[in-house]
Amino acid sequence: MATEARAITATTPMSGPPAGAFVVPEFEIIPLKGIPSVVAVIAGLTVAIAVNKLWALEFFHVVGGGLWTGIDLFVGLIIGPILGRLSTQARIEFLTRFMPKMVLIMPTLVIMTLASGWQLARYTGDIAASYPEHWWITASFMVVGVMSVIAIAILEPANIAVLFELKKPRPNGELMAKLTRRFIYTAGITGIMQLATLIIMVRLATN
Amino acid sequence: MEERKLPPISELCTLTMVLVILGGIYVASKLPREVPLGIPIALTAIAAAVLVVSVVLLTRLPDDFAWDNFRLVAGYSLLAYVAIAGILEFTFLRNHTPDDVMVLLTAQLFIYAVNIPVLLGFSVARYQTPSRATA
């Protein structure tokens, strides 16, 4: 990661202390170095679905789902509250290093989990289970649906908009604070919703 | 910079996404059994109509909207969501989904892959000033 930095002056403070000069490290909104890894994961996922082998599908679904759930819970319930209490300078340094990685990691984990999960459910026959047992599958679709709406409509735009704001010579501190709060709250909500996913998935796997 | 007063494109795109997801959940909850298509077709048709309204409203935005930022975010998002939609399409094809259901799912994935870049691009560009291309 580039270590160059530039001093900026926020038009209004993000929180607490009066507006002053902050140092924004150089960063890429989309870290290009990470793209080959994403391509490799997507290629592996496509092969796993094409060959339809149980271990490969289990691998992508369990690894993807475990990381997705774990990261959501950790960010929403641990990192989020800590982030809210950091100084503006510390928050800027954290966000410029953390959020670009999330731009690549989260969509990759989501597609990895969903596509392999659907194929896995077809393979194991869980998708063909009759109601009322099928309600557990339907419930998992609903939870994922709600989380997708929250993540795509609120969380992800806030994430990207903060990064764009930090690229400006004079970022708007008030706007960044508002968008960061939005990111933290929605990450918390999706984190809590992941608990529902855990319950459903454990119930399905042990039935 | 204050948040600008702009048409409710984010809200409309969110509505489109909700309708597509509802239709998708309905279909997925019925598969692999026979899927009654009336409700998901209606949801998809409404979603398509709302997406068209969003795009029309988008094209009417003034020149001082940050189009460069919109294109940048929407372009990368389109690339990502076309890939995501492609993998889901492949998964449905791999499982020999019936033709009528496949057509519906393809339409839903198409709407999804177009709608989300519009949503992300607009949601980011609304806070930007024009002529500042950042990447």
**DSSP strand tally of chain A:** 2
- Helix percentage of chain B: over 70%
SSE arrangement of chain A, N to C? EEHHHHH
Q: How much of the polypeptide of chain A forms β-strand, as a percent range?
A: under 5%
Distance between the termini of chain A: 46 Å
For the secondary structure, the number of strands of chain B is 0
Q: What does the radius of gyration of chain B come to?
A: 17 Å
The SS-based structural class of chain A is mainly alpha
Helix content estimate of chain A? over 70%
Quick gist of this model?
The complex is a heterodimer of chains A (207) and B (135). Chain A is mainly alpha-helical and 207 residues long.
List the SSEs and their pairings.
The complex is a heterodimer of chains A (207) and B (135).
Chain A: E1 5-9, E2 21-25, H1 35-51, H2 54-85, H3 88-124, H4 134-166, H5 173-206
Antiparallel strand pairs in A: 1-2
Helix pairs in contact in A: 1-3, 2-3, 2-5, 3-4, 4-5
Chain B: H1 9-30, H2 38-59, H3 67-94, H4 99-125
Helix pairs in contact in B: 1-2, 1-4, 2-4, 3-4
Question: Care to describe what's here?
Answer:
The complex is a heterodimer of chains A (207) and B (135). Chain A has 207 residues and is mainly alpha-helical. Chain A is 74% helix and 5% strand. Chain A has a two-stranded antiparallel ribbon with strand order 1-2. In chain A, α2 runs antiparallel to α5 (173-206). By secondary structure, chain B is mainly α. Chain B has helices at residues 9-30, 38-59, 67-94, 99-125. The radius of gyration of chain B is 17 Å and the shape is elongated. The A-B interface holds A 11, 28-30, 42, 45-46, 49-50, 52, 107, 111, 114-115, 118-119, 122, 127-128, 134, 137-138, 141-142, 145, 148-149, 152-153, 156-157, 160-161, 164-165, 167-168, 172, 175, 179 and B 1, 3, 10, 13-14, 17-18, 21-22, 24-25, 28-29, 31-33, 69, 73, 76, 80, 83-84, 87-88, 90-91, 94-95, 116, 119-120, 123-124, 127-128, 132, 134-135.
